[in-house]
């Protein structure tokens, strides 16, 4: 028995867990990458074989459509998804399927937007039963890699645009992602019920910007359900079925994964070829690890197990993976002994924004550690390295896909785990092309990535430095164009393009150094355009940059925590800001403190904290002498002691003020 | 109390004589036949005030009624005792400070001076200073003090801005101050000093400099500029602590001081000490004694002294503090002849440190004479 006995015990545990409604379900927590909400239906059954398993073999490839909904924030992606699910009977219409607002403030503000779960919709059209797989995509370009992987499982997209707001920056970014993946794009103009709606104008914008004929736009009101049925019909008519073959060996794309504390990793997969069923032995092309499939099924939108999944279909798979890093997005799964060519485009998550994270109080270290572990359990794209700072104590250096990703992570720590953290100003990964043979030997490569400023190699040992850049899209009413162009110029951005998308709206494209937008670009843009400009960006590789390492000196001693890598053009501004911030926070000492920003031996900015003076101007007569002598002695001893140590005590508050991401 | 006519006439004559006294040029005054150990300045503390000033943490009391006769007797007794103990033969200056010594009767001042003159030699040209508060010193009273032997006045004017005076808890107005100053100059020409404070909460450089400018039109040959020190236990300290008043800005105070120095220099004043300015040689002999490490006797409640004892106890210079509280001090004086509460013998290093710290406050620095005096003190102990 042995093994069977053990399985029996586990099944009982699952059943108990699943049947108790009050029990916390790891799966129901929104995952970071998929940052989101679920439909309101409670999953009462897990894999327990209580429900009749649908036979997926009857859905032939030509009856399948795989598509995504992409939209700028608040343009109605989730509401449309709700309607589609209702129309296909996937969820009950009588239920209150009102869009659940995003929980996190940053999600609402920044448009990481709601992510609907992937769902298989069964829909009859002209007497034929279709399987429509609505494949979710994360709502922000920070996750553009994930978006591209999700899109690679689709053949078409619904591009939802608000009839009032028109095309926004994220609409453009989303469109081009779909366009590059050669997907059919169905423009859907939503919210036509609004008084201020101008669907005709939006049609013209779509024609101008995306070159899509205006008669291809579908005008709907997802909120009222107006014309939503025609969206489903367009999906069937305009999106081609996947080009896959059931007879070929299994080739499945992992496009999402989540972690369930009872069942392990649940991988969302799209089958490009072949069939997968329970008991199959599968291999990850990335890790080359082998797993036995415990369960397969479709998402409608909650997991419903099936006997098999066939080519062209989308569903989930559980195979004893214990960690989300074992089911990385973009990975290809194939049958043991039947290796296939992995699907193109896989890459490991590559953090683009780094920040130090420290507990406000060191006694909170362990709590914070466990909170970070829990959050990263569902998000393999956050890299975590232990770090420590003299000033801030023990903490971590975390790598994020982008700024927003970082903010979401931080807010979730605060809101869900009640953790109070100090997040340092974000930095970006720079690169250096080494010229020193010794260093090349040491690093075993010619091009190195620099995350910690302390590792910044000297110019004499380097051919060139590189900084990450992004292609930014800004869409704004034209009256703000001048101000925005000034802002971009101040951020070292280079204009690529400027197009009027209608009479009074302009689309600007700029190449930005990533580090110029990581701190407060978005807020500046929003405030100088009264909130009307939208911004989005995509990775654009690296470019040569004149980078320098800037030291911050206190009376000539470099402060390790404050070493910064900056662009030469920005060194003065950045140095001055840091010096000023320090000046405001450093307590006065009995001696003068020179705060200097230096590049090599050259001082580029200076502030002075004047010494604290014990009023020597006060009178001193017969009765004051004893006291005066005591004061003088105490002062002299104090000065001696401080000088001897040779460093200035920088209070933690001062460091926090300088290092903290004040954004 | 009314002075016997003959005696009063004598005192008036003495005061007139005092006013005719040759001005002291600098350090030390006229050559003295006595060695330094036999010479001293005498400080007399009058511990009473009408009202508490918001910045003051001196040893002072707001009495219901002062038993002035008892206080006078005790001051006189202590003068005799300490002069005897110190072996001092010659007193070159007497300073009545407080508290508010201008609240004391001229008779008391006269009695103390007489006691000094009885136990030691009080030369006719000795400097006798009285601290005077504008409101408690009408012209007639100032004349009486002059008659009692006072020949120099130090007026606690503090500010020429009525709001600031109110903030400081002073009972006078700027016009009171200027009137008192004018009267004092008539009575003690060339021998009137005024105090002006700087670095008050919310005080600005420009307006303060205008005050100083105005003061220059009215003042005599001596001026003291004091930066406000917020002392724990004062009303002002508490107000700043609670945030009711802004903390004085030391940068502004520095600016006031520097600008003020320049202005006074322009007006012909010599800055002979950190906070003290004089023209026409009108330096304060008494205070100069402190900075030159001369001997001084502290008489009265809480007074400080520094002198060498004569006789059995050897030649060690001591720092002495009298009992603070007036009633206790008086009891002690009546029992033991003096109210010294604390005696600290000063070591060689301390003496030199004091000589250095005090010397550096003056424009002459640490002079050979002072060094020699201190070294003599050390070698003779």
From TrEMBL, chain B:
Region Disordered: start-end pairs: 17-36
Keyword Iron-sulfur found: yes
Pfam families attached to this UniProt entry: Radical_SAM
First-listed, main subcellular location of the protein, grouped into a coarse class: mitochondrion
Domain Radical SAM core: 34-270
Subcellular location(s) of the protein: Mitochondrion
One example of a Gene Ontology biological process annotation: porphyrin-containing compound biosynthetic process
GO cellular component entries: mitochondrion
Record GO terms (molecular function): 4 iron, 4 sulfur cluster binding; coproporphyrinogen oxidase activity; metal ion binding
Classification via SUPFAM superfamilies: Radical SAM enzymes (SSF102114)
InterPro entries recorded: Aldolase_TIM, Coproporphyrinogen-III_oxidase, Elp3/MiaA/NifB-like_rSAM, HemW-like, rSAM, rSAM_sf
Keywords: 4Fe-4S, Chaperone, Heme, Iron, Iron-sulfur, Metal-binding, Mitochondrion, S-adenosyl-L-methionine, Transit peptide
Function per UniProt: May be a heme chaperone, appears to bind heme. Homologous bacterial proteins do not have oxygen-independent coproporphyrinogen-III oxidase activity. Binds 1 [4Fe-4S] cluster. The cluster is coordinated with 3 cysteines and an exchangeable S-adenosyl-L-methionine.
Family to which this protein belongs: Belongs to the anaerobic coproporphyrinogen-III oxidase family. HemW subfamily.
Protein's name according to its UniProt entry: Radical S-adenosyl methionine domain-containing protein
Origin species: Sciurus carolinensis (Eastern gray squirrel)
Lineage: Eukaryota, Metazoa, Chordata, Craniata, Vertebrata
């Amino acid at each position: 028995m042995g093994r069977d006995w053990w399985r029996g015990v586990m099944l009982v545990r699952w059943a108990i867990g699943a049947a108790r409604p009050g029990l916390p379900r790891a799966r129901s927590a929104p995952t970071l990458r998929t940052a989101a909400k679920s439909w309101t239906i409670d999953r009462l059954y897990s894999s327990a074989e209580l429900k009749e398993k649908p036979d997926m073999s009857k859905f032939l490839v030509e009856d399948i459509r795989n598509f995504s909904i992409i939209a700028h924030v608040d343009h109605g992606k989730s509401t449309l998804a709700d309607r589609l699910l209702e129309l296909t009977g996937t969820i009950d219409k009588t239920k209150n399927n009102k869009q659940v607002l995003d929980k996190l403030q940053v999600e609402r503000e920044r448009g990481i937007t709601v992510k609907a779960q992937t769902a298989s919709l069964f829909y009859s059209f002209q007497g034929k039963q279709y399987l429509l797989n609505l494949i979710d995509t994360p709502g922000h370009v920070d996750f553009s890699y994930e978006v591209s992987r999700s899109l690679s499982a689709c053949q078409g997209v619904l591009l939802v645009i608000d009839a009032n707001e028109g095309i926004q920056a994220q609409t453009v970014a989303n469109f081009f992602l779909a366009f590059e993946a050669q997907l059919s794009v169905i423009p859907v103009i939503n919210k036509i019920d609004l008084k201020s709606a101008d669907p005709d104008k939006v049609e013209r914008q779509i024609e101008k910007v995306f070159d899509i004929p205006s008669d291809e736009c579908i005008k709907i009101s997802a909120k009222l359900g107006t014309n939503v049925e025609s969206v489903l019909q367009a999906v069937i008519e305009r999106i081609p079925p996947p080009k896959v073959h059931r007879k070929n060996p299994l080739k499945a794309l992992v496009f999402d994964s989540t972690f369930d504390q009872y069942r392990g990793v649940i991988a969302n997969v799209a089958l490009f070829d072949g069939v997968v069923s329970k008991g199959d032995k599968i291999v990850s092309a990335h890790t080359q690890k082998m797993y036995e499939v415990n369960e397969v099924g479709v998402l409608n939108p909650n997991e419903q197990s099936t006997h098999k999944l066939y080519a062209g279909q989308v569903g989930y798979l559980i195979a004893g993976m214990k960690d989300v890093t074992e089911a990385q997005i973009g990975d290809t799964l194939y049958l043991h002994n039947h290796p296939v060519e992995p699907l193109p485009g896989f890459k490991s998550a590559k953090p683009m924004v780094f920040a130090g994270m420290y507990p406000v109080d060191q006694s909170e270290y362990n709590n914070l550690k466990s909170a970070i572990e829990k959050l990263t359990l569902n998000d393999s794209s956050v890299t975590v390295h232990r770090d420590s700072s003299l000033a801030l104590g023990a903490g971590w250096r975390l790598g994020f896909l982008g700024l927003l990703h970082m903010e979401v992570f931080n807010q979730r720590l605060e809101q869900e785990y009640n953790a109070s953290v100090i997040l340092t100003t974000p930095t970006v990964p720079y690169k250096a092309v080494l010229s020193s043979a010794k260093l090349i030997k040491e690093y075993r490569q010619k091009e190195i990535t620099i995350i910690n400023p302390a590792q910044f190699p000297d110019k004499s040992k380097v051919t060139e430095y590189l900084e990450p850049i992004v292609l930014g899209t800004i869409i704004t009413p034209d009256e703000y164009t001048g101000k925005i162009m000034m802002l971009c110029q101040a951020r070292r951005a280079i204009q690529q393009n400027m197009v009027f998308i209608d009479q009074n709206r302009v689309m600007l494209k700029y190449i930005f150094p990533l580090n110029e937008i990581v701190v407060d670009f978005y807020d500046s843009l929003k405030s100088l355009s009264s909130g009307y400009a939208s911004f989005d960006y995509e990775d654009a590789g690296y470019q040569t940059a004149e980078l320098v390492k800037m030291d911050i000196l206190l009376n000539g001693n470099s402060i390790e925590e404050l070493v910064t890598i900056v662009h030469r053009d920005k060194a003065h501004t950045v140095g001055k800001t840091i010096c000023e911030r320090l000046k405001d926070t450093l307590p006065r000492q009995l001696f003068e403190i020179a705060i200097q920003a230096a590049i090599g031996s050259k001082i580029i900015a200076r502030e002075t904290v004047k010494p604290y003076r014990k009023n020597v101007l006060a009178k001193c007569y017969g009765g004051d002498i004893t006291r005066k002598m005591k004061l003088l002695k105490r002062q002299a001893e104090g000065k001696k002691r401080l000088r001897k140590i040779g460093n200035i005590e920088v209070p933690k508050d001062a460091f926090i003020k300088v290092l903290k991401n004040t954004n | 109390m009314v002075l016997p006519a003959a005696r009063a006439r004598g005192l008036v004559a003495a005061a007139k004589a005092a006013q005719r006294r040759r001005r002291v040029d600098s350090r030390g005054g006229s050559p003295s036949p006595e060695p330094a150990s036999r010479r001293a300045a005498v400080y007399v503390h009058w511990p009473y005030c009408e009202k508490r000033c918001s910045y003051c943490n001196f040893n002072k009391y707001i009495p219901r009624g002062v038993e002035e006769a008892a206080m006078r007797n005790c001051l006189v007794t202590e003068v005799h005792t300490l002069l005897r103990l110190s072996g001092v033969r010659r007193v070159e200056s007497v300073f009545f400070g407080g508290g508010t010594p201008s609240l004391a009767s001229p008779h008391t001042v006269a009695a103390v001076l007489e006691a000094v003159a009885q136990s030691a030699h009080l030369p006719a040209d000795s400097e006798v200073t009285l601290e005077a508060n504008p409101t408690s010193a009408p012209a007639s009273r100032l004349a009486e003090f002059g008659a009692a032997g006072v020949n120099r006045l130090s007026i606690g004017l503090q500010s020429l801005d009525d709001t600031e005076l109110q903030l400081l808890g002073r009972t006078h107005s700027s016009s009171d101050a200027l009137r008192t100053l004018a009267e004092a100059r008539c009575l003690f020409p060339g021998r009137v000093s005024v105090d002006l404070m700087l670095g008050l909460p919310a005080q600005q450089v420009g307006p303060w400099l205008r005050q100083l400018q105005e003061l220059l039109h009215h003042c005599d040959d001596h001026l003291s500029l004091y930066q406000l020190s917020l002392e724990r236990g004062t009303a002002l300290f508490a107000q700043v602590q609670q945030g009711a008043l802004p903390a004085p800005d030391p940068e502004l105070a520095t600016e006031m001081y520097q600008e003020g120095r320049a202005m006074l220099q322009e007006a012909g004043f010599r800055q002979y000490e950190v906070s003290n300015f004089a023209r026409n040689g009108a330096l304060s002999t008494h205070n100069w004694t402190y900075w030159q490490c001369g001997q001084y006797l502290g008489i009265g409640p809480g007074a400080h002294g520094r002198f060498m004892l004569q006789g059995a106890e050897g030649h060690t210079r001591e720092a002495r503090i009298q009992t603070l509280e007036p009633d206790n001090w008086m009891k002690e004086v009546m029992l033991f002849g003096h109210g010294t509460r604390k005696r600290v013998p000063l070591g060689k290093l301390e003496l030199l440190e004091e000589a250095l710290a005090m010397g550096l406050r003056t424009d002459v620095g640490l002079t050979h004479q002072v060094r020699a005096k201190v070294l003599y003190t050390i070698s003779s102990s």
